[in-house]
Write a structure and sequence with these properties.
The protein has 19 helices and ten strands. A six-stranded mixed sheet has the order 6-7-8-3-9-10, sandwiched between helices. It has a four-stranded antiparallel sheet with strand order 2-1-4-5, covered by helices on one side. Helix content is about 65%, strand content about 10%. The longest helix is centred in the middle third of the chain and has 53 residues. The chain has three domains: about 325 residues, ABC transporter transmembrane region fold (Up-down Bundle), CATH 1.20.1560; about 160 residues, Rossmann fold, CATH 3.40.50; about 70 residues, P-loop containing nucleotide triphosphate hydrolases (Rossmann fold). α3 packs antiparallel against α5 and α5 packs antiparallel against α6. The chain has about 575 residues and is an alpha/beta fold.
């Protein structure tokens, strides 16, 4: 109950900026209800006049009733538009804002969050679950409000016409009330599970489309087709279970209300034969009876839709309520304007999950400003973890990371990342042109700056040889380029940003000898400039021999430090690694 109240409060807060449109829709809905309930009363009055004083009815009187009826119907038509469109306008202004806010919140969460989530699941929450809120705001809530008003107004008029007949109308109410309560209890978890299964399906679909080359390479099309088919069927079956429950409830409630209508018509007809009830009253009562039960039937359907929409809202706010593991501290300040690039790890320890073995164990490391430092070691010893901590994708579980003497936990994330440029091990390129991908690190860069960065990364000659030159589209994730070409394009992107600290994480891990030579020339060119601190994380040691200092990690500890010549003379891990390559 507390969670439902909290979600309702958040939805009201989201809708607050659109209160003008929603107020118009509410006023129009109120007027619509009034116009709908007055129409049977006009017909009742006309029927009574025709029945009792038929000889006094004139053309003028009939014309006056016709004008009143037409006016009521025109008001209904106008109010339907004024209640419908503003509500939809408010909803479709809220949904894109919510989707943008949800995306913005997710993109500021740490990599640890995404490590435990499927991309397709997150996409489902941004697209499908937010769409449910449009239904809630533009359809469900307005209809529930107008149904409640209609019910109250019609009940009042039924009591005025005949209190005893009105009591008969309430015969199915206990059954409908109990059935509705059970229905809501059962249907909401069903739709929540269905939304989860839809997320599973989207996740698997996104994963398979991204890995289609691997699926084809290993001949797993049949197996993956079977997996996608099973997930689609699971979602479909869950929806069908919910719809079966819904159909049973709606058909049962419809039969009960129809049975009462028959009782009312028979009893009313008997009363008319006895002369104890006017035909106009019977006509109005039957017309009002349809209006009376319509909200009950509508609310039953709306309750189903409401539970589905609420399940979607829960999934949306579950993400929105997820706190970022890494955030600006209350006392965070920007790094000073002229960052030198002096880096120090002070007794830094780290593990990715509580209770797991530490990846780094009380590491002390100093990286002088404007130097080239290589970090090497076997797989899984914490090389990339050092980079993750320096970029503050994660915070250390112990110790401090300092830049120019400033603890980066007390530095704004924006200023930290503005001063550090990184070439990731897993290169990501956007489905745009070569120029757009290089310019991504500096949106206001001129064409000359972009070409200069490409030259520095030793990829300019390759780019101008492409059919479209710098305007060539690289494809999704750079699929039209080789691994080495993507690496050098990523290096150009990092160079263009011109940060005082440059990190190259396994920049030559998956390239051929020629590409490695090009990348090495780019690194040497950057190092020769002497204007920035360069950190090279490498598994292939041929790229780090000219580094000012090489740091060797083993089991989360710094076991050696020195130049290549110094370390190769020592009988240690670095020498062993070199000999094995």
């Amino acid at each position: 109950m507390k969670r439902s109240t909290e979600i309702t409060r958040k939805m009201l807060a989201l809708a607050a900026p659109y209160k003008r449109d929603l107020s118009i829709a509410a006023a129009a809905s109120l007027t619509l209800v009034a116009a709908e309930v007055v129409t049977p009363w006009i017909l009742r009055d006309l029927t009574t006049r025709l029945e009792v004083r038929g000889e006094t009815v004139t053309v003028g009187l009939l014309a006056r009733f016709a004008v009143m009826l037409v006016g009521a119907y025109l008001i209904q038509a106008l109010c339907r538009f004024c209640s419908n469109y503003p509500a939809h306008r408010a909803a479709w202004r809220l949904v894109p804002r919510l989707r943008s806010d949800l995306y913005n919140h997710m993109q500021n969460l740490s990599p640890g969050f995404f490590a435990s989530q499927q991309t397709g699941q997150l996409m489902s929450r941004v697209v499908n679950d937010t769409d449910k809120l449009e239904q809630l705001l533009a359809h469900i809530i307005p209809q529930m409000a107008s149904s409640a008003l209609t019910f109250a107004a019609v009940l009042t008029l039924l009591l005025i016409i005949d209190p005893f007949l009105t009591l008969l109308v309430f015969l199915p109410m206990p059954v409908l009330g109990a059935g509705g309560w059970i229905f809501v209890k059962k249907i909401r978890p069903m739709f929540a599970r269905a939304q989860g299964f839809l997320g599973d399906f989207n996740g698997a679909l996104q994963e398979n489309l991204s890995g289609v080359k691997e699926i084809q390479s290993f001949g797993q099309q049949d197996g993956e087709y079977g997996k996608i088919s099973r997930l689609a069927a699971v979602y479909s079956n869950q929806i069908l279970r919910a719809l079966r429950t819904s159909a049973l409830f709606h058909s049962s409630s419809g039969f009960l209300t129809s049975a009462v209508e028959v009782i009312v018509v028979v009893y009313g007809g008997w009363m008319a034969v006895q002369g104890r009830m006017a035909i106009g009253d019977i006509l109005a009562f039957v017309l009002y009876l349809n209006l009376f039960y319509q909200p009950i039937k509508t609310v039953a359907q709306l309750l189903e839709d409401f539970q589905s929409a609420y399940a979607g809202a829960e999934r949306v706010f579950e993400i929105m309520d997820t706190p970022g593991d890494v955030q600006d501290a209350p006392d965070a300040k920007p790094l000073p304007p002229a960052v030198k690039g002096d880096i120090r790890l002070d007794a830094v320890s780290f593990n990715y999950e509580a209770g797991e073995q530490h990846v780094l164990k009380s590491v002390d490391l100093e990286i002088p400003a404007k130097s080239v430092t290589a970090i090497v070691g076997p797989t899984g010893v914490g090389k990339t973890t050092v980079i993750n901590l320096l970029m503050r994708f994660y915070d250390p579980t112990g110790g401090r990371v300092l830049i120019d003497g400033h603890d980066i936990k007390h530095v704004t994330l924006e200023s930290l990342r503005r001063n550090v440029s990184v070439v990731m091990q897993d290169i990501f390129l956007f489905n745009g042109t070569v120029m757009e991908n290089i310019r991504y690190s500096k949106p206001d860069a001129s064409e000359d700056e972009i070409i200069g960065a490409a030259r520095a990364a030793h990829i300019h000659d390759f780019i101008i040889g492409l059919p479209g030159g710098y305007g060539t589209v690289v494809g999704e994730r750079g699929l039209r380029l080789s691994g080495g070409q993507k690496q050098r394009l990523s290096i150009a992107r990092a160079i263009l940003r011109d940060c005082p600290i440059l990190i190259l994480d396994e920049a030559t891990s998956a390239v051929d000898a020629e590409t490695e030579a090009h990348i090495q020339m780019a690194i040497d060119g950057l190092a020769g400039g002497g204007g920035r601190t360069i950190i090279v994380v490498a598994h292939r040691l041929s790229t780090v021999r000219r580094a000012d200092r090489i740091v060797v990690l083993e089991d989360g500890l710094v076991v050696q430090q020195g130049s290549h010549d110094e370390l190769i003379r020592q009988d240690g891990l670095y020498k062993t690694l070199c000999e094995n390559q």
